[in-house]
Amino acid sequence: MRKTPVPHDPARARAGAETNRATAEAAEGGAAADPAAAPAAGPRTAPGPWTAFTLRRTGRLVVSLATLVTASFAMIHLIPGDPVRTALGPTADPALVEARRQALGLDRPVTQQFGHYLAELFQGRLGESIGAGLPVSDVIAARLPATLSLALPAFLVVLLAAVPGGMWAAVLTRDGRRRRGELAFGSVTGALAAVPEFLLAVALVACFAVALPLFPVASRGGLDSYVLPVVALSVVPAAALARIVRVETLRVLGEEYMRTAAAKRLPARLRYLRHALPNLLASSLTVGGLTLMALLTGTVLVEKVFAWPGLGTTIVQAITEKDYPMVQAVVLVYGTAALLITFAVDVAVAVVDPRSTVRGS
Questions:
Q1: Is 171 left (phi over 0), alpha (psi -120 to 50) or beta?
Q2: Which of 3, 148, 158, 342 would be a feasible disulfide site paired with 238, CB 3.0-4.6 Å?
Q3: How far apart are CA 235 and CA 46, in angstroms?
Q4: Residue 67's pLDDT is what?
Q5: pLDDT digits (tens, 9 = 90+) for 90-122
Q6: Whole-angstrom distance between the N-terminal and C-terminal Cα of the chain?
Q7: Would you say residue 88 has pLDDT above 70?
Q8: Do 128 and 134 meet the contact criterion of CB atoms below 8 Å apart?
Q9: Separation CA 271–CA 258 (nearest Å)
């Protein structure tokens, strides 16, 4: 069959040529706009788990510190009435009150006071005591070592007593064995954990310093003066931590890898120290951080009982004398210490157990 020739249409040809040209330009423009095709732009990679963990924990620390600083500044402004008049007494000379207000900067607007407070804080100056007229930073620098000399030995005693004691109790009472021993351990540690620290301190003074004069009653002196305060600080948290360590040890002993180690007839020392103890560190570190914070704050009452020249005695005296700048600074020091301990514990737990902490965050 013979094909009929199609007549040539110039308008249709021009329209087809323009369509093809527009399609080619769009393809070239899309290729140039594609970031994957651009040679200068490299592939974007997501931050690693350790980087994300560090940024998140550091951000939380910075926000918490900013909140603490703001709250400590607002503390003195939330007190009803004039804090200087309250501290100096109702019979103080008005000229003296006004001079002290000017020295503390309380006559300025609140925004200027906050800016001055931040500037002084970054330079390590925490204000001036209303009652003593001394720089608060000098007082804290003189009293902080005495508090640490109680809290750190007490923390060491807690770890050395609670971790082996809790593990030993778990090994002896696992699988329902030695019911009487389990009952005795739970009763003794529960009773000790419920005793207030200041009441225990008074009982220790009455028994071992007054009835039996074996140790000094109060004040900071030789090594024997540390015994009763350290015992008063460490008994309660050691009993509480031992109960937690026992429960965690029972959980670890029931894991499959512990049964495998026992089936291989590994010595008990290797099973408990090499396999059980490392798996207890994550939970023990968390509770240990809380214990250290509790020891730092617990020194407040214990120092008062033993007349120990530390921050606890300082803050009690400042509250009694209504020395609000001193109270403000000590609260800031305690709060900063608690936040730094929490941050250090988070990092330590992430190092010990990175799978659940770093990737989970």
A1: alpha
A2: 158
A3: 48
A4: 93
A5: 777 788 878 877 777 777 788 888 888 888 888
A6: 78
A7: yes
A8: yes
A9: 7
Cα-based torsion angle of the residue sequence 265, 270, 271, 272 in order, rounded to the nearest 10 degrees: 150
Place of tokens 């994550």: 282
Q: Over pLDDT 90: what percentage of the chain?
A: 9
The most confident of the ranges 20-29, 86-95, 137-146, 320-329 is: 137-146
Whole-number Å distance between alpha carbons of 200 and 298: 12
Contact 340, 57 (CB under 8 A): no
| HEC letters along the chain | CCCCCCCCCHHHHHHHHHHHHHHHHHHHHHHHHCCCCCCCCCCCCCCCHHHHHHHHHHHHHHHHHHHHHHHHHHHHHCCCCCHHHHHHCCCCCHHHHHHHHHHHCCCCCHHHHHHHHHHHHHCCCCCECCCCCCEHHHHHHHHHHHHHHHHHHHHHHHHHHHHHHHHHHHHHHHHHCCHHHHHHHHHHHHHHHCCCHHHHHHHHHHHHHHHCCCCCCCCCCCHHHHHHHHHHHHHHHHHHHHHHHHHHHHHHHCCHHHHHHHHCCCCHHHHHHHHHHHHHHHHHHHHHHHHHHHHHHHHHHHHHHHCCCCHHHHHHHHHHCCCHHHHHHHHHHHHHHHHHHHHHHHHHHHHHCHHHHCCCC
The identity of residue 309, as a single letter, is: P
Q: Which two tokens stand for residue 357?
A: 């902490």
Could you tell me the two tokens for 348?
Answer: 């330590």
Is the Cβ–Cβ distance between 101 and 84 less than 8 Å?
yes
